[in-house]
Specification:
about 45% helix, single chain, 41 helices, about 1000 residues, alpha+beta, four-stranded antiparallel beta sheet
């Protein structure tokens, strides 16, 4: 870190090292530990009568144990003075070696550290040498002609920023190349940007509060009892679910959600208990009615069931519930079986840790059916980061929601829009619910409530805020008035942070305005900008930061923040400036996410877990598609189990914040494998470079500089860079290993997307499929469809493919343009969809692909497809399969195609099922099965006991979607069947 003290050898910046060793007490202590230990191999010892070159040769050929290396070096230094300097010039020197180097006052020590300046510890040591010999250090750094982003350039600018008096003598002492390097580094890098006018600055920066601190009124801390009004539900504001999407009036799809929830409960009630489950009901359960059975399934202890029935749950508490026997159930699915008073009493007392409902779609049917009576049970299930929960809250006007909404408004950018909408829609309830926290004890809840009250006040709801404050009495009303009279930017800590003097402001990127790309904030404002950033905490940023973010372009702020991060790392990561690191999550962009992902791996490898975990959390805070991709890579890696678990949890949180389905999350976490936009990669040996291109099966093809195909990378020769060659070889080895797994995973995902009628928007299709380095390989081998209508129910309107150049073309190879209509969606067309559009369409496309010698990665155009026998439309069973035999290999093949096994009595695998949508599934049952803990013999045969549709009562095979039915029939026919004798 650049120093701010005067030079130790007088005030002469041109001072030079005197060529002596300045021994320190630590060096003397280490020297006293020297033992002339014989070599373990040959018994030789260091002779003090040998000349220096022989001693150096002895040390090189007879290495000592690590604990004796420093004393040995210091002994030679004592004998020969600075002539022993080569012993201390080790790459990436350790702390003790750097301390010894600083005591050796020699030009070669300075020159060595200048060459190692990229290492933060060496940079710090070089800055200390600059305290003694400023011009020498600066000239050595400039002699390397460093680029602006390199550590040497940063140190030059830091030193001159801290010591402007060195500028003139340095210019006079430099030779011409050094002078040009200095001028280049200090040149204005603003790209011709003009300074923004004061009217374009954030308002608080025109008169920064810390430059003229005013005495502020003290806001009292009051213990207020909540003043509440009855809650109301406004279903006209309900947000329809996205997955699968629904249409029509809210009353229609809300009623359908209630019906689906009730049917889930009916299925579970009919299926449980099952004999193989570890939790079984007591013997008297045989005589139980539906409410008693439902209470047991909700986890209520058997001895408390009769009491709950008798007093409608009034005497229940959370301690009366244990773990429910069905781990995958939602608690809401069994509440339908209970009388309303008992259902609501149970819902309000269910322990959230045991009965967690992460999906808001399970809660909404309860609210719609039971109304405001269900609200007391709602708070334990509110997830702060879940956008779905905030959308659920859109219909609830309830004072008790206000503090939770305020926390989302204040600290979560992904739900801020939904939080603002709630505050503006229900200002009276919001203000009434926020006043107690806004005047309560200091903490996050107080800060969030005050921020939300200020927003309400400024958003045109001042009358509502003051009226609701009066409901708490004149003291509270006066306190709220005082609170709102204080600009939040004026709330400053007692002690202001001190900005580092060595930070070179002139090298920081310009802060370009969001609304005028030709102007940037003036350089004179940078100290105040930095103060704005330093004042905040990770969980509660300084209020002025939001105004700064609104005024400056996001990409400019992200570049600025990355420059601060680079300075912080390059200067030894000082604790006082840790705010530079903490800013990355709030201000970062995709490039920031890439750098953080790389850094956290380095930190974790160095056992710096805390910093690695912080960087991981920042990836979640950035939350962009690129950040999700890096989180996905960390969740897939297996070297560090702790990073794997934390990244997986963050993925779930970010997906909930952004309202993404599992399929959309998978889109955003597809690995890129280090490939470029055309699925290529350059492997560098230094003098030689090799080009890698992925083929249609995502396998690497190698070529040399002349374009000659290679089966493998050649062995490095004497001219190659050994480190680069080793890294390239390892990169190719890792790529081959990963590519096989990634290809299998993504092809399964694409095939499932076709069968499940998955749809993408125009933007998603281009970003996550056409332009993705890995997915583009498979995308161009498939035929895509443009679908109208809503989601999977839309019909095929047109078809196209993606050419090798990434262009969209129709069957005649004419350019195909995607429409801009919001309702249009893109998907992988299924043969039944081709047939419904034009019976000859699939054949025409097959001819086109054959002309281009394109082999599809899975069956699409040539896929066998089936229609349901009309005689079976009103049935649930498929009798034609009963009595046939199937091998275990065939059953395991069903699992590979999306069927799930079920373990029955005594731990026997005896059923396989596949979901066909709307709560329905086709189940295949065998008579024999195999023991779950044993290995299934692939050749062993099983007898089919039956194949039937299961699910809601009254539904039959005719209710199964045609494509879902076709895929079930195809799966069954592909198994290894033998006909009934």
């Amino acid at each position: 870190m650049a120093a701010g003290r005067k030079g130790k050898q007088g005030d002469d910046p041109g001072a030079q090292p005197d060529g002596t060793v300045h021994w320190t007490a630590a060096m003397r202590g280490a020297l006293a530990e020297f033992r002339n230990t014989p070599c373990r191999q040959c018994g030789a010892t260091l002779s003090e009568n040998q000349p220096l070159h022989e001693q150096l040769d002895h040390i090189d050929r007879h290495p000592q144990p690590a604990w004796q290396q420093r004393p040995q070096r210091l002994r030679v230094l004592e004998l020969h003075g600075t002539g022993a300097l080569p012993l201390f010039l080790e790459p990436a020197p350790r702390k003790e070696a750097l301390a010894d180097l600083l005591a050796i006052h020699h030009v070669d020590a300075v020159r060595f550290l200048a060459g190692q300046v990229r290492h933060p510890e060496c940079k710090t040591a070089l800055a200390k040498q600059a305290e003694r010999w400023p011009l020498l250090v600066l000239r050595e750094l400039l002699a390397a002609n460093p680029a602006r982003h390199q550590a040497g350039a940063a140190l030059v600018l830091e030193l001159l920023a801290a010591h402007p008096e060195w500028q003139a003598p340095l210019e006079a002492a430099c030779d011409e190349p050094q002078r040009k390097a200095l001028a280049r580094l200090q040149a204005d890098d603003g790209g011709g940007l003009a300074d923004a006018e004061p009217t374009q600055w954030p308002a608080f920066l025109r008169a920064p509060p810390w430059k003229d601190r005013q005495a502020l009124p003290s806001i009292p801390v009051l213990a207020l009892d909540a003043v509440e009004q009855p809650a109301r539900l406004h279903w006209q504001h309900a947000v329809p679910r996205r997955y699968p999407p629904v249409g029509g009036e809210p009353a229609q799809w809300l009623a359908e959600e209630v019906r689906e929830a009730q049917q889930r409960g009916e299925r579970q009630l009919a299926e449980y208990p099952r004999p193989h489950h570890t939790t079984q009901p007591p013997p008297e359960a045989r005589a139980w009615d539906r409410p008693r059975k439902a209470l047991w399934m909700l986890g209520l202890k058997a001895e408390r069931i009769e009491d709950a029935i008798g007093d409608h749950g009034a005497s229940l508490s959370a301690d009366d519930f244990g773990k429910p026997p069905g781990d995958s159930w939602s608690c809401g699915d069994q509440l339908w079986q209970l009388p309303e008073p008992l259902a609501m009493a149970v819902f309000a007392r269910l322990p959230p840790a045991s009965h967690y409902m992460g999906d808001a779609s399970y809660l909404r049917p309860l609210l719609h059916r039971f109304g405001t009576a269900a609200l007391p049970g709602l708070p334990p299930y509110l997830k702060q980061g879940s956008r779905a929960m905030f959308e659920l809250a859109a219909v609830i006007e309830w004072d008790r929601l206000a503090p939770w909404i305020a926390k989302g408004f204040h600290g979560n950018r992904w739900v801020r829009q939904e939080a603002c909408a709630w505050l503006g829609r229900y200002p009276e309830a919001a203000a009434r619910g926020l006043v107690p926290d806004a005047l309560g004890a200091p903490g996050i809840a107080r800060d969030a409530a005050q921020a939300a009250l200020r927003w309400l006040h400024e958003a045109g709801h001042a009358d509502a805020v003051h009226a609701q404050a009066m409901a708490y009495g004149p003291v509270a009303a006066e306190a709220v008035s005082q609170l709102l009279a204080i600009a939040p930017e004026h709330l400053l800590p007692e002690t202001l942070p001190v900005l580092p003097k060595s930070l070179p402001l002139s090298t920081l990127p310009r802060l370009v305005l969001a609304e005028d790309a030709t102007r940037a904030l003036p350089a004179a404002l940078l100290p105040d900008v930095l103060m704005t950033m330093a004042l905040g905490k990770p969980e509660t940023p300084y209020p002025g930061l939001a105004a700064l973010q609104a005024a400056v372009a996001p990409e400019a702020l992200a570049r600025f923040a990355r420059a601060l991060l680079a300075w912080w790392i390059g200067n030894g990561r000082p604790g006082k400036e840790r705010w530079m690191f903490a800013l990355q999550g709030r201000l970062g962009d995709d490039e920031t996410a890439r750098q953080l992902a790389s850094l956290l791996r380095q930190w974790r490898a160095a056992l710096d877990r805390v910093r690695a975990y912080d960087a991981l959390a920042m990836l979640g805070e950035i939350g962009s598609d690129a950040a999700l991709m890096h989180l996905g890579e960390l969740a897939r890696q297996t070297r560090y189990a702790d990073l794997n678990a934390r990244a997986s949890a963050l993925l779930d949180e970010v997906a909930a914040q952004r309202g993404l389905s599992l399929a959309q999350l998978a889109d955003r976490t597809e690995p890129e494998l280090g490939l470029d936009a055309r699925a290529g990669l350059a492997l560098d040996f230094g003098p030689r470079r090799f080009a890698l291109q992925m083929d249609d099966r995502l396998q690497p093809l190698l070529r040399d500089d002349a374009g000659k195909p290679l089966k493998a990378l050649p062995k490095p020769n004497a001219a190659d860079d050994a480190a680069l060659a080793t890294a390239a070889t390892e990169q190719l080895k890792e790529l081959r290993k990963l590519a096989k797994t990634v290809a299998a995973t993504q092809l399964r995902r694409l095939e499932a997307a076709m069968c499940e009628q998955r749809r993408w928007t125009h933007g998603e299709f281009m970003a996550f499929l056409v332009r993705h380095p890995v997915m583009r390989v498979f995308v161009r081998q498939l035929v895509w469809g443009l679908f109208g209508g809503n989601g999977a129910n839309g019909s095929l309107e047109a078809s196209f493919r993606v050419s090798a150049e990434g262009e969209l073309v129709d069957p005649h190879d004419d350019p195909f343009a995607l429409p801009d209509e919001e309702g249009s969606r893109i998907g992988i067309a299924h043969p039944l969809e081709f047939a419904a559009r034009d019976p000859a369409l699939a054949t025409a496309w097959a001819s086109v692909l054959a002309d281009y010698e394109i082999v599809q990665p899975f069956e699409q155009l040539a896929r066998a497809h089936f229609t349901l026998d009309p005689a079976l439309r009103t049935q649930r069973a498929l009798p034609q399969w009963t009595g046939r035999t199937v091998t275990n290999a065939g059953l395991l093949g069903l699992e590979a195609r999306g069927w799930q096994r079920e373990v029955g009595d005594g731990g026997m695998v005896h059923r396989f099922g596949k979901s066909v949508g709307e709560g329905l599934a086709i189940w295949l049952q065998v008579e024999e099965g195999w023991y779950v803990q044993g290995a299934a013999d692939p050749k062993a045969q099983q007898t089919v006991a039956g194949v039937a549709l299961e699910g809601a009562e009254g539904r039959c095979l005719g209710d199964v979607a045609p494509i879902a039915w076709s895929e079930v029939e195809r799966d069954l026919q592909r198994a290894v069947w033998a006909p009934v004798p």
